[in-house]
């Protein structure tokens, strides 16, 4: 009988890099900007840290009653779940401890949250746990965030105008998707980059260096249960999609539905309805950041006839707007129909 042999890894195999971590990527990109001082990089690290904690919490939600509802939907806040509260606390705490963020606007609270870092140069608007209403059913959820450089006086408290500068004033935006794998996707205005979480190492690794959305797609994502409340231009567009035999895909979590269409091409629709005549999604921490990512990926985001990033914010920090976002050709087709209907 021959003795089994063990093949040891070669030097070249051992030398193969594991990959580029988020930390290393951030440092490399910071070095490309001679006037960068590191605050924005630290903010992205803080967001990534909080998301790693949420990976653990989301994975055990069914065992720890974190999916339970603890508060009803309000005028400015979504239905509150224990895990949503956990996400709010984790992200606010990480941004507070990081020191670069002077205030946070969260979907979970009606008012601006001061971090105590009054010399911080940035403010962050976020939906801590998008899609939490579906936690009981093991549906993918996400965190959506938007970062602005403050315009109020350093050394003092943040003000509403720090968050209402408009969509094109964002310096960074993105989302984290908690699904079969966890991904962090973000932009600083120079394209869109995706990172996938490796749980055994506790690190996000660069997996998609330059994400672009296909110009055309064959997927439409919306809640067709609201069909009879949709404006005529939206119903007409969706009828055309069905006549073309496009595929309907709808999870009910903006981060999850958008993420799929970012990769495959398609359009996500949340038109105004009778219950939500101004739209349901929040402008500052859902529509603006998704629109920023979309434009940087080559797609389009509109509220109807108007590009989302050109919508002027009101004084309502939880302002709602309609959202149509995805592949450029599909969204521009819908936008033309909306403009014709408004004429």
TrEMBL record:
Name the UniProt record assigns to this protein: Fructose-1,6-bisphosphatase class 1
Record InterPro entries: FBPase_C_dom (IPR044015), FBPase_class-1 (IPR000146), FBPase_N (IPR033391), FBPtase (IPR028343), Fructose_bisphosphatase_AS (IPR020548)
Limits of the Fructose-1-6-bisphosphatase class I N-terminal domain: 21-209
Lineage top rank: taxon: Bacteria
Entries under CDD domains matching the protein: FBPase
Positions with a binding annotation for substrate: 223, 250, 268-270, 280
Pathway per the UniProt entry: Carbohydrate biosynthesis; Calvin cycle
Similarity remark: Belongs to the FBPase class 1 family.
Gene, per the UniProt record: fbp_2
All residue ranges annotated as the Fructose-1-6-bisphosphatase class 1 C-terminal domain in the record: 213-337
EC number: 3.1.3.11
Principal location class: cytoplasm
Entry keyword annotation includes Calcium: no
Catalytic activity: beta-D-fructose 1,6-bisphosphate + H2O = beta-D-fructose 6-phosphate + phosphate
One of the Pfam families matching this protein, by short name: FBPase_C
Keyword flag rRNA-binding: no
NCBIfam families for the chain: PRK09293.1-1
